[in-house]
Amino acid sequence: EAVTNRILDDLVAACAPRYLRLRAKFNVRGGIYTTVTVEHRRPGWKAPAPVPVPGGPTSCQ
Fold it and tell me: Total domain count for the chain?
């Protein structure tokens, strides 16, 4: 969905984040559901290594 990319672009312009993930869930008439996920990463940015938490989730969703 183009609107998801537009929202991401506007948020990046307003906040200048190092990393941003945006998930948009659309409920359209007719029983068709769409989930769009977009990401922004500042050039050169590397994600830190995950820190395991005892009893915590093993992955992000």
Answer: 1
Q: For residues 8 and 20, what is the distance between their CA atoms, to the nearest angstrom?
A: 8
pLDDT tens digit string along 32-53? 899 999 999 999 999 999 888 8
CA–CA–CA angle 14, 10, 60 (5° rounding): 95
Inter-residue contact 38 to 10 (CB < 8 Å) = no
Region of 7 (left: φ > 0; alpha: ψ -120 to 50; beta: rest) is alpha
For residue 15, give its domain range.
2-41
- Rounded-to-integer distance, Cα 26 and Cα 3, Å: 11
